Amino acid sequence: MKYVEEVMETPIAAQADVVVVGGGPAGFSAAIHAARMGMDTILVEAAGQVGGVATIGLMSHWTGKTQGGFYEEVLERAKDGTAKRLINPEILKTTLLEMLQEAGVKLRLYTMAVGVIMNENTIEGIIVESKSGREGILGSIIVDASGDGDIAAKAGVPFVKGRPEDGKMQPMTTMFKVAGVDTERAVLPGSFESTYELPEGDLQTLAQEHLPFPAGHVLLYRSTLPGIITCNMTNCIDVDGTKAEDLTEAELVCRSQIGPIVEFLKRFVPGFENCYVISSASHIGVRETRHFEGEYTLTEQDILEAKVFEDWAVTKAHFNFDVHNLSGAGLDETGAQKLFPQQRGYTIPYRCFVPKNVERLLLAGRNISGTHLAHSNFRVMPICVNMGQAVGIAAALCVSSQITPRELDVTSLQTELTKQGVTASEPNKAGLVSS
Question: CA angle 151-156-160, nearest 5°?
């Protein structure tokens, strides 16, 4: 059965040089840099806060690493006297809003992008829904930093979901924090391959035996507050983050696991004997959905070779193949953390941000053009922040020159990035953790 709505006229509520969809790490960065380049910029975000998984997702820390670029500025602005890479979500929420306002970005929070305004194969704007009703927002360049690539999909950019052989995607997680932890004694495994021998047995093995499937691993991280630890332990498999019904299922499954996880921690893990839940994410963490086709697709081999592309846009990026088990708990058989062999930074070419088939559109964040395994590396927040920096600058250059992203001379982007401290030489080394 279908309901046919009457034909509606959608008012155009706003027009800007650059319209960014999604206020996560890639999106807020893209919006700030487009605005800093003098562009009239609008940022559309479905939630009431920006920061994505770093804030409303209650992520514990900035996992992965880059050198040179906007990520380091964010760390400096949001520090609260503790280790810089630890996230205080309340400070970060306010800091990011301040940075957006300082740059002159116009914010549209509590607003969901639901459609596109197309002229043949050119995107000219987006359709949004909010308390204000259904509206159109026009832009000279549209940046899709929505994570799932909702705008790119609606515009007709080709994509695949998940891993190529079966379309399965990495599991979802609801992060939560527990208080009452004796952090002097606390056992804190920070990766799937970290474990501890307890009187009752191996910690990770005990988790598989005692936690409700598909939960079954222990990932615990310090916070910026005394006695409080962030838990990355809920797990829901076989769900699709582009479907509301699957997001609902994942929310129910993950929340049903929080109680048993806390009881497990109190029973087995030193330092957690008196712990209790104090907060949980207001948005479930979605690791993987659509992989779009761009002018170039970044591969796992590119990362393993620490490849420096001639048209680099992101540089000195480093992480591991952080593939959460698609069939249960722990690290997937394709993943590599401690055994990840490449300790140098790699680059991401500008072509990965330019989608096929659609003009005046740029991708930023985990939805860029990359393989399933490459995505498990570049999806982390510091790398996405620096993606946003490059894409925001690229969008501004396109508007200034009245050209499409496909026509942009990448050397002009690299010149501006170099002025901002981003260079392609001397790759970095970095530690390995899981998200």
Answer: 90
